[in-house]
Amino acid sequence: MSLRHALLGLLAEEPASGYDLTRKFERVLQRYAWHAKNSQIYPELKQLAADGLVSIIETGPRGRQTYAITEAGQAELRRWMLNPPDVFLVRNEFVLRLFLLTAVEPDEARTLLSQVAADSAAALAELREQVEKFDATAAPGTTLPISRLVAEYGVRSFQTLHDWAFWAHERIGQVGTDPHPRVTADP
Amino acid sequence: MSLRHALLGLLAEEPASGYDLTRKFERVLQRYAWHAKNSQIYPELKQLAADGLVSIIETGPRGRQTYAITEAGQAELRRWMLNPPDVFLVRNEFVLRLFLLTAVEPDEARTLLSQVAADSAAALAELREQVEKFDATAAPGTTLPISRLVAEYGVRSFQTLHDWAFWAHERIGQVGTDPHPRVTADP
DNA sequence: CATTGACATGTTAAAATCTAGATGTCAATG
DNA sequence: CATTGACATCTAGATTTTAACATGTCAATG
């Protein structure tokens, strides 16, 4: 049950309402790390509050309830972070589809790979834009915040995916379809 | 419910028993693409059989039941493969922990990153060994099978993870701990 | 001032998944 | 020939997750 710790982790950064957290999941976490719907988030917040790991620190308009992590919550989050499992079990439908690519005709596989190359290029461009915006405003020579390090991992991952899709596309079947233009790394 | 399609995909490659499928999940799928326990696999196989997407083609010793995909199953698998979702939702506890790295002290984060670098180096070495063994036996100049393409994705992903962990480790806090030796790409 | 859309929190029933077993077969080993 | 370990299937109960709704508030817009 990683959802608890995902919520604790987000609340450790700053207090937030169920609505805020739902939007964070939708905007960033869900594409890279974890996904959860509001129908799961709200009950889990209540449970966390019942367990004393978070508490409501403010109630605002429209019934808004702002949660903050408690000291017990901090301790639990730390405990979890410092005790990773031996093997991480993965559920990634994208990679699953890669593994099952033999189930379609080579031509179709080529089409799918071409789509992967295009999608990853788009994701890469978007992430890179965010990163560059950040780097422009950040003071030079300063230590990078962890969020910037994580973003770097995203950029590198998408670049790898893109390169691979391009490479695999060229190797999979016959010629004919023209691939999407390849995106290269920044200088 | 991707489990159905994971099973269909594996059975499309070759007939197998629930036991065979469970082992395939344990040995390869679970680390990269999807994980499922036998307590989920056996009922799902029954359901697939009830739906006419697979059928028992052989019963062997120790009650072994070998399943094969049916034509209806092939059609369903193809339909699924050719209709990917707009966005892939991800559940990856490893990446989640990366996102939450701010929750621990810089020194602890460095230790964790160091561990990531070591683990990814090990995984990379293992995968590379398999790939090299395959490449040595494969006829040169032949078209690569899709499984080789997927393995290549694995190799590149782990190399990226390793490089990043090394890079992030150097940037995260102060000096002191000596990192694991860095693994570089093959020539 | 009516409408719209973002804000905001929930519930319920069904489906998927996990934990933790139970049960039995067969081949190889000492 | 007793033991061990891999082979092999299966279930029950609890937990997690999803899909699909249900309800209401407030700010901005025309």
How does this structure look, described?
The structure is a homodimer of 187-residue chains. The first copy, chain A, is mostly helical. Chain A is 62% helix and 9% strand. Chain A contains 7 helices and 4 strands. Chain A has helices at residues 3-13, 18-32, 38-50, 71-81, 93-99, 106-137, 146-172, and strands at residues 16-17, 54-59, 65-69, 90-92. Chain A has a 3-stranded antiparallel β-sheet with strand order 1-3-2. In chain A, helix 1 (3-13) packs across helix 4 (71-81) and helix 6 (106-137) packs antiparallel against helix 7. The first copy, chain A, starts with a helix and ends in a 15-residue tail after the last helix. The model of chain A has no long low-confidence stretch (mean pLDDT 91). At the A-B interface, helix 1, helix 2, helix 4, strand 4 and helix 5 of A face helix 1, helix 2, helix 4, strand 4 and helix 5 of B. The structure holds a DNA duplex (30 and 30 nucleotides).
